[in-house]
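Sat 14:20. Reprocessing the chain from the morning session after the first attempt stalled halfway. Input below, unchanged.
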Amino acid sequence: MKVSREVKTAVLVLSGIALFVYLFSFLKGDDLFSNTNTYYTEFDYNALSPSSSVTIKGNKVGKVEEITYDFDTKKTVVEFSVNPKLKFSKNSIIRLYPTGLMGGNALSIIDANDGEFAKPGDYIQSEVKQGLMSSLESSLPKVTSGLDGTLESADILVKNLNAMLLDDSEDGLKNAIAELNTTLKSFSSTSYSVQSMIKNNEAKIASILDSFDKTSKDLNALTTELKEAGLSKTVEELTKTIGSMQSLLANIDNGQGTIGKLLKDDSLYDNLDAASKELQLLLLDIKLHPARYRRILSKKEIPYEEPTEEQINNN
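Finished this time. Tokens:
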């Protein structure tokens, strides 16, 4: 069968068109013969370009298909496709990150690994990772402000040095060098004096060090003897005794026991005071009227007479 020239020309033109479409798609990063799943995410601004890479754990698994601006939400909607073999959670994070110092960004899938797989067409949450240049840009004002202060301080220092070098009226720099030289000489003289003093008193210093060594040894021996004598046990028993005394004093303060009652019970004190006064009067009466008590067995009763104040005071 003979093919006409027109058919050959048409086949050649169609093949060229198909090859052109394939090459154009290939240069854009599209693969006409592969199947992909499409998902969506949103950002506050656009820092991507079509065909930007989509990665997971550093491996490229897809690319950005289309970037549009939503006039209602005022956000940038990014459509991206990934290999259908990739299964990731719908609660994952799509991270926008820089791919180099000179610009360029890509998307990374941070999988949540919770078993709730995303379906094609789902919207995935997003976040932005700040790059090195952005960090430098945000930190640059602080650095420049600090640098301005440093340069200003350096400028003041240079001016002061210039003023000192140009101080001809008082020979500022010469006087400073002369004073420094005098100070160094004084320090040298002092060091020689200290060295001479140490040399002249070597025997005394050695004796002092020897005495200190003996004293430390004696103190160590004393500490050992006290330890062997059971000082800790004595201190422990003393602590127990002090605790018992505190408990006893607390009981007395609370009115417990004989002493506590004497100190806290006013009625008992009043009774004792009254009894003491009556006993005093009885002894005074015995002293003033002994005959009355010698005739206790007699039938004659001698009536009791209240002693006078003078008698009480005299006795």
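Residues 223-260 form one domain.
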